[in-house]
Automatic annotation (TrEMBL):
It comes from Pyrocoelia pectoralis. InterPro entries: Acyl_CoA_acyltransferase (IPR016181). Its EC number is 2.3.1.87. It catalyses: dopamine + hexadecanoyl-CoA = N-hexadecanoyl-dopamine + CoA + H(+); dopamine + (9Z)-octadecenoyl-CoA = N-(9Z-octadecanoyl)-dopamine + CoA + H(+); serotonin + hexadecanoyl-CoA = N-hexadecanoyl-serotonin + CoA + H(+); serotonin + octadecanoyl-CoA = N-octadecanoyl-serotonin + CoA + H(+). PANTHER family: ARYLALKYLAMINE N-ACETYLTRANSFERASE-LIKE 7, ISOFORM A (PTHR20905:SF32), N-ACETYLTRANSFERASE-RELATED (PTHR20905). The keyword Flavoprotein does not apply. Pathway: Aromatic compound metabolism; melatonin biosynthesis; melatonin from serotonin: step 1/2. This is aralkylamine N-acetyltransferase. It is an enzyme of class 2 (transferase). Belongs to the acetyltransferase family. AANAT subfamily. Keywords: Acyltransferase, Transferase. It comes from the Eukaryota.
Amino acid sequence: MEFEYGPIPPSKYEEVIQHLRQHFPDEPLNGSVGLCKHGQECKALEHHNVMTLKDGLSVMAVDSNTGEIAGVALNGISRQGEVEEGLKEVEESDSREFRLIFGLLFNVNHELNLFQRYNVDKIFELRILSVDSRCRGRGIAKELFMRSEIIAEEYGFKVIKVDATSLFTQKVCESLGLTAVKSVRYKDYKDEKGNLLYDVESPHDYYKVMLKELPDHSTKG
């Protein structure tokens, strides 16, 4: 099985969404909360995914023989102030599952204030990394990640960031030189009755914000 890699054009957006409906629900944090279910529409997340695709930075792996999508990396631009807008959206959402996942991500990122820390006004975010369950273990995720980093450099980003919610993603990040700037343990989050909010299956015990500073090419030519 061979794969071809390239950018995701608008003509492929619907196919990407269909791929994610089938394969992204396996993601451990989602699995523990149940925001997205296999094969079903997930409006809350799919709106964010389409907006990310429209940033024009995402990449896909396609099976050379069948033409089917084997994996995707949805990459977007995070701008100053958007985390705070996201927190408002979380507060207004009537979906408990959406509030649990995005409330965690946005609150941790708000505390970190990466824009001030790295003196930037935009950050390259690898937001969704998904591989067809039939194609896993073939290095697709790592290749998508490497190509994403090249895009980030080409567009002049100084920082690439991943909200790494699974051990799998964290290992890919580490292999490509990203380091954790924040690590939180899922079992530390409980409701007022002492019940776990995130019953994520081991070994996916931590959510880590992982980051890498990219070379500055602004002085070239």
